[in-house]
Every structure is written in C-alpha cells, then in structure tokens.
Design goal:
By secondary structure, the chain is of the alpha/beta class. The protein folds into 2 domains: 199 residues, Quinone Oxidoreductase, Chain A, domain 1, CATH 3.90.180; 119 residues, Rossmann fold (3-Layer(aba) Sandwich). The protein is 23% helix and 28% strand. The strands form 5 sheets. Strands 3, 6, 7, 10, 11, 18 and 19 form a 7-stranded mixed sheet that branches. It has a 6-stranded parallel sheet with strand order 14-13-12-15-16-17. Helix 5 links the parallel strand 13 and strand 14. The longest helix is centred in the middle third of the chain and has 13 residues.
C-alpha cells in the first residue's frame, strides 16, 4: 500500500508499506479521503505543532473517511462506509470523568505528542480500534464525511457556549473551523451570524454558507456589546480583546482557535465589568455523531470543502491549504480507483 510520511519541515514522501492486519477489537479501513487540518500544516511546514516535534516519520491526517476492508469480528461488512473518531482516551481524573477527551495520556491520529508518534490516516489502509468507527447514513458521500471531525469540533464549541438558538453569534476567523462553526450556527437556529476575517476570500466563503453579515477587520471594527455568543476561531492573540469587547453584558466568549503557548497581552477589563463567560474549547466529546447527522441533513455544509487534490500531489495540497485567501478545507483523495 501507499502511505504519506512527514519526516521534517517541508519533507514529505510517498512510500510503500505492508498492508496492516487487524487484531482483536480492530477493523481495517480502506481510506478514501483525508482533510488537511491546521495541525497537519504545522507538522509539514514547521516540522512541529507547538511543543510537539516530528522526531520520526509521521503519517498525517485525522479527518478521515473510507470503507471497511476487513472486520475480523464480522460485525461490519466489507464496503461499509465509515468515518473515524480519531481519539484514544487516557486515564480519568477527578472532576473530568465525563470528559474523556481531556484525560491525560490519550492519543490522537496524526500527532507527534506521543512517542512513538500516533500515526494518522493518510494511507491506503489503516487499522483502527472498532470503537472509533462511525457508520455513515445513506446519502452522505465519503468526501463530505471527511468533514465530520472538524464539524464535531465546531459543535463541541457550540455546546460549551450553551447553544446558539435564537442568539446573535459572532465567529472571528473564517478558516475551515470558523466556517464549520458559522455554518453550524446557521443551521442550528442562530438569530444572526456574523463572520470576520482579514481576507475577502474566507469572508466570501462564509457568505456562501449562509452567514448574515461579514466584517473585514482590516477595514472595519467589530461592534462592541453586540453579540450573545462569540466564537474566537483565529487562534491569534490580538483577536481576543476585540472578542471580549464584542460580547454583550453577561455574554459568552468561546476560545476555539488554539493559541500559542506563551504569554500574550489581553485587555480583560470588558471580561470583568460585563461578567463575560470565557470558556476554552478542545477537540470534541461525542459530537461526531451529531456532525454526521447534520452533514446528511444539510448538504450545504459541504461547501466548507473547496479543493480535492490527489495524494500524489500532496505538496500542492499542503501549499493550497496554507493559502487561506484561495482555499477553505482542502481534502486529499487517497489513491482512489474511482471518485466517491
């Protein structure tokens, strides 16, 4: 089989490897599509994602879809269409028993946070634990199903913020996660959704997904006290202060974008004087099931995907994904004989 491996910054190869054999409690999946995530971009272009450095060949990819190739248990028939919940949970701790995604010592597909690294899904075949498998409903394509993981991240943020129905929502940063969040807020009944960015390309995509208003923050200011819920999706330190200012009194700001692991300057006066709730959001719990349902019920959500690029052109795929003016979600097709 073919597999993609990141060795260091801007060093990725296509290699041959043996087809893996599933053991007890495992399923072999013929991988079909894999979305390029922000962490994948960091690993490819920088050879690291924050503190996690690529020290051995790393297969990227945790936004995956495919078909069952072999299930030794016989539970799933060959050809069953699936997506994958890419987390293995660690050790429970007091106070977070119901949040396994926060448990320490866990792992996640395509991550250098563990040694050996936890290999991702951008290979022709991948053996996965059977509890990771999510069967797709009829009518949901495999390409569209590769959005289930990032959409689950967005839905988790919505849950952490207390929901969006009938609320005025601001999404700062219209990259792929911001687009997923804005589109999900629309279909989940927000009264009004506004998206921001520094580029017109992402804002145009947000508009096409049904958001009501867009703001280019290089040209216009975000209004203060105007939103019930603010989702900060850019992960850029200077965006936090405007997000706190934009929330109404008693409103909520959800930090979705991953911030650099260092001190940053933030104006906390609005946070205190307005009694704003500021909540962190990390990955997702079990929202991937809801994400699958939403993707099946609302085909327009697939508009987050702007490019599908063959795995043989993986360098082009990463270059395209880094160009946020031109691309939303870039999906890699993994050596398909036929397109889904």
């Amino acid at each position: 089989m073919k597999t993609l491996k990141i060795h260091s910054a801007e060093n990725i190869t296509i290699e041959d490897a043996a087809i893996p054999e599933p053991g007890e409690g495992e399923v072999r999946v013929r991988m079909m599509y894999g979305g390029i995530c922000g962490s994948d971009l960091h690993y490819y272009f920088e050879g690291r994602n924050g503190a996690f450095v690529v020290t051995e060949p790393l297969v990227p990819g945790h936004e995956m879809s495919g078909v069952v190739d072999l299930d030794p248990s016989g539970r799933l028939a060959a050809g069953t269409r699936v997506t994958i919940a890419p987390a293995t949970y660690g050790t429970s701790e007091p106070g977070i028993e119901d949040r396994p995604y926060l448990w320490p010592n866990g792992s996640y597909f395509g991550s250098a946070s563990t040694t050996p690294h936890t290999q991702g899904g951008m290979s022709e075949y991948r053996v996965v634990k059977d509890f990771m498998i999510r069967v797709l409903p009829d009518g949901l394509g495999l390409k569209e199903a590769s959005l289930a993981e990032p959409l689950a991240v967005a839905l988790h943020a919505i849950a952490m913020a207390g929901g969006v129905e009938d609320k005025r929502v601001l999404v700062t940063g219209s990259g792929p996660i911001g687009l997923c969040l804005a589109a999900a807020a629309v279909v989940k009944g927000a009264a009004e959704v506004t998206a921001t960015d520094v580029l017109d390309g992402p804002l145009s995509r947000a508009k096409s997904l049904g958001v009501h208003h867009t703001i280019n923050v290089r040209e216009d200011q975000i209004p203060a006290l105007a939103y019930d819920v603010v989702f900060e999706c850019s992960g850029v330190g200077p965006a936090i202060s405007p997000a706190l200012a934009a929330a109404r009194r008693g409103g909520t700001v959800a930090q979705v974008g991953m911030l650099p692991d260092r001190e940053i300057g933030v104006n906390l006066a609005p946070f205190v004087s307005k009694e704003v709730t500021y909540v962190g959001c990390f990955r997702f719990n079990d929202e991937i099931g809801e994400a699958i349902e939403l993707l099946a019920a609302h085909p327009q959500l697939a508009g987050v995907i702007t490019h599908v690029i063959d795995a043989d052109d993986i360098v082009e795929a990463f270059q395209t994904a880094r160009n946020s003016q031109e691309s939303g979600k870039v999906v890699v097709s993994l050596w398909l004989d036929e397109q889904d």
